[in-house]
Each structure stands twice: as structure tokens, then as C-alpha cells.
Specification:
This protein is α+β, with helices and mostly antiparallel strands. 38% of the residues lie in helices and 11% in strands. The chain has twelve helices and eight strands. β2 and β3 (174-177) form a beta hairpin. α3 (47-55) runs antiparallel to α5 (90-101). The longest helix has 31 residues, at 11-41. The radius of gyration is 30 Å and the shape is elongated.
Length: 284
Amino acid sequence: MFLQIFQLMPQTIQNILVPGTIVLCLAALLGILIVIVSHFFQMPVNEKKEALVAALPGANCGGCGFAGCDGYAQFLADGSTDTSLCAVGGAACSAELASILGVAATFAEPSVVRLLCQGTEDRTKRRYEYLGTLTCNAAHGLLGGPGACTYGCLGYGDCITVCAFHALSGKNGIIQVDSKACTACGQCVRMCPKDLLQLFPRSAEVAVLCKNTWPGAQTRKNCDVGCIGCQKCAKTCPVGAISMTGALAVIDQTRCTRCGACVKVCPTHSIAYLEPALENNSAN
């Protein structure tokens, strides 16, 4: 019956219908084959890993050292018990991961990013007018940037662009960190060409906010708040938490007792309180 109807059709329709029917049959056959193959060769679902991925915040920031949350979840599913690597999720996330793994939770001390520079536009000056691409990495490639202090913050905001948590902003020529919004993911730390953004324990109260290792006289010419290597802080610290790296003072945060003696004696105020509230409390 169908053959008779087909033979009565015009030749042009036959020429279209035949290859179309063949293509449809092939497509149906391939579809059946795909279903059969996927059934026999499908990868088993790792339920533990899926649960771990669901417990992670999904920020995919890389702060844990892996490419994203999926990579960290796989690391845990493969046998690791270190649940402290997700800075974004914090203690609550660590506890949930540990519960899924059936292990005791491990917690890292909460951290926050700090900018080791106070060289605002009114405290330092420029060596030349920079007319290139307005990124820190580009400017840094031209004699360390236009700033008089070649160790100082360039302020073009490469770090701002990679911060997924809107914890960074620019003001008066340097970067400002909103410690409440910072999750310590470390993306900005890796982006800064001058290594001025560093992770500190949230418990840290004072730091040397400078990375300049020039001799004191040269520092004074280029920045009002740079460390001049006078060593007053090191001599004053009652617990020996301050050492010198050339002309730069460095505070060992694991030994610092937060007494504030170094802040009081620093002639350039390069050693400062990390939060305004702490400074106000000390003054009171």
C-alpha cells in the first residue's frame, strides 16, 4: 500500500523523501546506540564527593590551593581529612565537611588580607607621568611604576578585579581592604606584582605597613611613612618579636603580644594598628 502511494508521488518528492527517511532511520539508530552505550559505560556517581561539593560555598576562588570547589571535594573524597582549607566557608564549612567524612574537624586560624603600604598621594610623590595601560602589572614593568617609592602600592586595582567578594577598593592612590568582607581566599595576594597584599591572622593587631628596604635617608626622601630602619621598635619590643631584614623591620606575629610599644616609638608611623578601632582603644 505504502509502496503504491510512493510510486504515485512526483519524482521531486520522492527524491526528497527517500534520503530524509534514511537520515531519520540513522538518527534513530544512533540514538538507540547512544542510550545503550551510556547505560553500560556510565561513570558511577561518587556520592561522597557530591555531598562534599554541596557543602562547599561554590566560590571557586582557588584559596584552598585547588582549581575550584570541585577539586577540593575530590581531594577530600580521595582520602584527605584536612577540612580547614576553605577560607570562604570558614569553621561552619569545615565542620560540615568533617561530618560527611566522619572525622574530627580541623580549623585554621581565621586570616585577612592586609596592604603593607600607607603611601597615599599625600604621603609620597611620583617620579614620572605614566601614560601606559592602567594596570599594576603593566606599570610595574616600567621601572617599577611611576611612584617615587618603587616598593609602594600602584593603586591601579588589579587586585580589585579579581576579588569576588568586593572586599577591595581604591582610595587616595592605594588599595583599601574591607576586613569584614575579606574571606582570605588569596586571589589578590597572587595578583599583586609588588607582594604588598599579604594574609595575616585576624588576631594580629599591629604590623609594619611597609616593604621598602632602602636605607633610611633614601626612604625619607620618597615617602613620609616608610620604614627607615632605625631599629627603635626592635629595641623596644619586650618579647623580641621584631627583627630587621636589612633596613626593614619585620614583626613575628606568632610572638607579638599586641602591647603596642613599637607603635608608640616608630618615628615615621610605618608600624601601625591594623584596624582604626584598635588604635582608638589603645589611645583610651
